[in-house]
Structure formats: C-alpha cells, structure tokens
Design brief:
Layout (H helix, E strand, L loop, with lengths): L1 H16 L5 H22 L3 H15 L8 H21 L3 H23 L6
Helix pairs in contact: 1-2, 2-3, 2-5, 3-4, 4-5
C-alpha cells in the first residue's frame, strides 16, 4: 500500500505539470480509483459477503465528488460509513465481527483523511 501512496505523489506531480484540457478530470478519476482501492482493501476484502454492496454505492456516488482534496470527500466517506455501521448493527449479530468491521471502516477513514484531505503535506 505504501507504494500506492508514493505513486499517488508522482502522478499528482505529473498531472500538475501537464497542460491538457482534461487534466483535472484525469486526476479526479485517478483519485476516485484510489479511494475505491482503499475501501476494497480495508473494508470489503475481509467482509466481502456483508459489505460488497457498499463498494457499488461508493462507485456510484464518488463520481459526483468534484475535488478529492476538499471536505466533500470526507463528507461522502462519513455518510458511507454511517450507512455501513447501520447495516452492521442491524444485520450482523456477531459482536466480534461488528468490532472487526468497525476497525476496518476506521482504518479506511483514516487513510482517506491522510491521503486526500491533508494536502499541506502532499506538495
């Protein structure tokens, strides 16, 4: 995963130096893909049967985010994770599994926060 973050910085630098009309859209799609990858790694892989439907929801709504470096991505991720928690509390009775899913969601949230909202340390 560390390599992905290093690649993100390199790709950000490349995009910032390009002079293409659709450069912003390319960068946005890359960031969208990175958020999806983080969600899959942290949440879905270990809890696939219960939470795969949220990957579809993430993909459906993430294209509406205009800037992944702003507060909009945090609001979106928070809303998604609240929905995940509601499902976990209602549909999953195993307390150990509930705790595991919550930890996975928290790790995903922290990764998004560090990699997409802390732009002061990125450039």
């Amino acid at each position: 995963m560390q390599k992905m973050y290093q690649l993100q910085a390199i790709i950000d630098n490349i995009f910032n130096n390009l002079h293409l009309d659709n450069c912003h859209e390319l960068k946005k799609q890359w960031q969208r893909l990175c958020v999806m990858k983080l969600f899959m790694e942290h949440v879905v892989i270990d809890h696939e049967g219960d939470l795969l439907k949220f990957a579809t929801r993430l993909d459906k709504y993430s294209d509406k985010i205009k800037d992944y470096r702003g507060p909009q991505v945090l609001k979106f991720v928070s809303t998604l994770l609240i929905a995940v928690e509601d499902v976990v509390m209602k549909e999953i009775g195993d307390k150990t599994k509930q705790v595991s899913i919550r930890e996975s969601c928290w790790n995903f949230f922290v990764d998004v926060l560090l990699n997409f909202c802390d732009s002061d340390n990125k450039e």
